[in-house]
Amino acid sequence: MSEIKNILDSEGGLGQVAVERAVAEVRSGRPVIIKAGRSHLMMLCVEALDERHVATFEALGKRRARLLLPAPRLRRLGLDRMKPGAIALPTIDLARIATLALELGARIDAPVATLSRLDLAALELVRVALVLPAVIAFPVSVRDIEGEGLVRVEAAAIEAYRRNAVRDLHIVGRAPVPLEGAPETEFVIFRGGEGLRDQVAVIVGKPDFAAPVTVRLHSACLTGDLFGSLKCDCGDQLRHTARFMAENGGGVLLYLDQEGRGNGLSNKMRAYKLQAQGFDTYDADEVLGFDHDQRGFDFAAEMLKQIGVSQVHVMTNNPLKIAALETAGLEVVSDRRILGRTTDQNVRYLASKRDKAGHFIDMDSAPAQTGGKE
User: Fewest 10 Å CB contacts: which of 3, 69, 296, 346?
Assistant: First the structure.
């Protein structure tokens, strides 16, 4: 068994492996045990909670269960609060939990307590798992869970996971993939980062890596990139970037699996439903419990370093991306705007990014969409 342990240690450490297994359990809707010292916490994401869990959780929780909510959702419940908190659940009342976690217009109905270290680790775990950021949690004893086969993970491993995941990023494949408008293109596939999701560095043309390289960090947008949604400018930005690089000495386009500003595809669809009811993109995310932007770009910087890029001309409207690359040790020589078309459906979205997140967007400079509606 020592040989197996050595293999696990060499591939990111036992703690990383435990977090990845816990992420799989969370996404599958099963409880996970988080521990620190002699303390153990059973947690389950709210979106997986149903009638099957009620009797078991009430017996194990011994009336000590709590609903853990992030600060944005607590603000939506009427609190002036910048930190997450916990609401006591004397009984596992599914209707009350759903109201507090998701319902529009819901208000706080009980005192909110400060989170423990284990509680904070539970919220971080669901964030990495890309599920709704709301958790049912309660303390348990080792005797309660003995022989139950539940995945257990140290709080310290969850706390270190994102930082360590950057270190484990590595290339797993590369091949030429000619693109329309950019026929001389190579795809370099990285594995690692959060959740072991594959990330892509698209090398367009033959950029000189000894000089500043034109770079764009593009977060995946299934609806815009693939289906041509009129609700955003992502697809336009993606295709315009590839053509620009092909016509201007090449570059590197990082295609990052960070759908919905890092919230995941299912939460993006929840936010879209709220937008259809009148919320802007950031208010919709806050209703669900998300801050303005959940993404991290440190692993993107590591991808660039691994292919030999150290100085960049970055194509972006987002000041956070510029700051992240500089913080990671890359030299940002210049930045260039990349604008998509404005449509009746995306004009509010673009204005929100400009006004609420500080994006460099000149609405008067963006070309207007012609043709049909969504």
Answer: 3
pTM score? 0.89
- Between 168 and 289, the higher pLDDT residue: 289
Is the CB of residue 159 less than 8 Å from the CB of residue 34?
Answer: no
109 is catalytic: no
Q: Please write the tens of the pLDDT for every residue from 99-110.
A: 999 999 999 999
* Sequence letter at residue 100: L
Catalytic residue among 27, 76, 216, 295: 295
Q: Which residue has the tokens 């053509």?
A: 243
Euclidean distance between CA atoms 257 and 225, whole angstroms: 12
Domain 169-258+295-357: assigned CATH number: 3.40.50.10990
Active site annotation includes 50: no
Which residue among 168, 283, 291, 293 is the active-site one? Answer: 293
Q: What is the pLDDT of residues 15-61, one digit of tens each?
A: 999 999 999 999 999 999 999 999 999 999 999 999 999 999 999 99
> 3-state DSSP call for residue 289?
coil
CATH code linked to domain 2-163: 3.90.870.10
